[in-house]
Amino acid sequence: MSIQKPRGTQDILPGVSEKWQYMEDKARDLCRRFNYKEIRTPIFEHTELYIRGVGETTDIVEKEMYTFMDKGDRSLTLRPEGTAGVVRAYVENKLHGETEINKLYYMGPMFRYERPMAGRYRQLHQFGIEAIGATDPSIDAEVIALGLSFYKEVGLKDVRVEVNSVGTPACREVYKAKLVEFFTPMKDLLCEDCQSRLLRNPMRILDCKKDVELVKGAPTILEYLDEESQTHFDKLLVYLTEMDIPYIVNPSLVRGLDYYTHTAFEYKADGIGAIDTIGGGGRYNGLVGSIGGNDQSGVGLGLGLERTLLILQAQEVELPIAQPLEIYLVAMGDEAEKVAVRLLFQLRQNGHIAEKDYVGRKMKAQLKSADRFNARYVAILGEDELQKGEIIVKTMETGQQVTYRLDEFVNRMKEEI
What we know:
The chain is an alpha+beta fold. The chain has two domains: 17-168 and 226-314, 2-Layer Sandwich (BirA Bifunctional Protein, domain 2), CATH 3.30.930; 327-416, Rossmann fold, CATH 3.40.50.800. It is built from 15 helices and 16 strands. The strands form three sheets. The chain has an eight-stranded mixed sheet, with helices on both faces. The protein has a five-stranded mixed sheet with strand order 13-12-14-15-16, with helices on both faces. A three-stranded antiparallel sheet has the order 2-4-3. The chain is elongated and about 90 Å long. Belongs to the class-II aminoacyl-tRNA synthetase family. InterPro entries: aa-tRNA-synth_II, aa-tRNA-synth_II/BPL/LPL, Anticodon-bd, Anticodon-bd_dom_sf, His-tRNA-ligase, HisRS-like_core, HisRS/HisZ, HisRS_anticodon. GO terms for molecular function: ATP binding; catalytic activity, acting on a protein; histidine-tRNA ligase activity; transferase activity.
């Protein structure tokens, strides 16, 4: 019996990996223009980081983390999200002393033990950014704008931005009490998870996919914002309007992580069944302090690359990734093969996409191979050409052939291409 990939993972094969590279290149270019610098953190961290940072009552910590004991009897966890690790690195490496605001981005795999389905994997990939060190709501607007710009630049259509304020810890305590008051009479109707959250973290009930009907009519956080939170939210909406970012205020949006304060937002798009959230983020004043640093405010986002690709496919968006082979070298005979090896290496050093036969096929089979590669040119070197010090170059689209001197071939191809 052959060994297969673990459930909830996928092999990204040639032909698809180029689409990933395209999205990643777009993300890096956007971050360059918005002045975000790349940070790379470990794929596993101490489990305590996620318990303190993400929150004990979140689905991630309670149900989804891949946690294990190492040989030193230390509890480690494969990272389920990116923000906590970035903040840990920010604190540990004292990045707060380098600039007044740190603007960072990351890309890579995350791991969550979820029930696999379209758009939901146990190994998923995210592109994320974090801006640490500023309280101004204009940076919140910038983060939201960067995420929407990413979706537009990879070709995604009809992406919706939903925003909300989850306030400060102080006004959230008042709001949580109101939620407990609202949900207590219907406690027995709530799902098992929400019953356990009722007193511990009732805001998580608003995010439940099972109790959607019961949540209708619940009080909203916007009714209980203090002056600071309301002012921050009002300014955010003004800045989004100034940038022509279309948005919808969703008072029930709370996100699935406990570290958010003030701004919370999500990007929505149709095309993956019941799943419509393709990315999101928010502000996390207090997270840096909870992880052990001198507290700094921060705001960030995480965008799911698998979901982005699935919706691009659903919308039938063709990514401009085709890079046809430029030159295919056909060599006949041992002496010609030796020269072809040298020429192939020189072509590649000059930046050309070049290839040759490696299994000793006849000329007709090699020409068919060049055609399958969609090569622009075929360069033919046989015994006669070798004796004359020449090489034949054929343009595949027109069938036109020219002959070059061997010692001029590489430079002439550089001029042609």
